[in-house]
Design brief:
The protein is α/β, with parallel strands linked by helices. The protein contains four helices and six strands; from the N terminus they run E-H-E-E-H-E-H-E-E-H. Strands 1, 2, 3, 4, 5 and 6 form a six-stranded parallel sheet that branches. Strand 4, helix 3 and strand 5 form a beta-alpha-beta unit. Helix 1 packs across helix 4. It is globular. The N and C termini lie close together (10 Å). Keywords: Electron transport, Flavoprotein, FMN, Transport. Belongs to the flavodoxin family. Its cofactor is FMN.
C-alpha cells in the first residue's frame, strides 16, 4: 500500500511553498502526497496520514506566523497516534531567535504524541545547494520510516 504524506506549509515570501513543492517532487514516486497551506489544515485529521511534514517560516524575531496560530493551538488538543513527522523552515540568521517556529512546531508535534523521524532543518532565507541536500535527506528519512 502506498503511504500518504501531507506536506503543510506557511509561507509569506514563497520560500516555504517552494520547499513544499520540492518535497512533493521528491516523495511523489513513492508516496501519495498532498500539499496544504497551514491555515487550511484540520489538525484533528492529521493522524489519517502515515506522515506529515511541516514547513514554516519564523515571523519577526522568533514567533509563529499568524496563519499558523490556530493550527498550533489545535495541536495541543490532538493525539497524533504516533503519526510520523518532520519539520523544517526558512528564517533569517539576522534574527535573535533563528528558526524558532521550527522549534515550537517540533516540540508541539512531539507533545501531541507524534513520532519525529528526521532532524528538523532550518534554512537561512533562500535555500542553497547544501540546504536542498538537507531537505532531500529529510524526505528520504520520512520515506525510510514508512518502509
Amino acid at each position: 500500500m502506498t503511504p500518504s504524506i501531507q506536506i503543510i506549509y506557511a509561507s509569506q515570501s514563497g520560500r516555504n511553498q517552494a520547499i513544499a513543492g520540492h518535497l512533493q517532487a521528491q516523495l511523489a514516486s513513492r508516496a501519495q502526497t498532498v500539499i496544504t497551506e497551514i491555515s487550511q489544515v484540520n489538525a484533528f485529521e492529521l493522524s489519517q496520514n502515515d506522515a506529515i511534514i511541516v514547513a514554516s517560516y519564523t515571523f519577526h524575531d522568533g514567533e509563529l506566523p499568524d496563519e499558523a496560530q490556530d493550527f498550533f493551538e489545535d495541536l495541543k488538543k490532538v493525539d497524533l497516534n504516533r503519526t510520523k513527522f518532520a519539520v523544517l523552515g526558512s528564517s533569517s540568521k539576522t534574527h535573535l531567535h533563528f528558526g524558532r517556529a521550527v522549534d515550537y512546531l517540533t516540540i508541539q508535534l512531539n507533545s501531541s504524541n507524534g513520532e519525529q523521524v528526521a532532524d528538523s532543518v532550518k534554512i537561512d532565507r533562500d535555500a542553497d545547494d547544501d540546504d536542498w541536500a538537507r531537505v532531500d535527506q529529510l524526505a528520504q528519512r520520512v520515506l525510510a520510516s514508512l518502509a
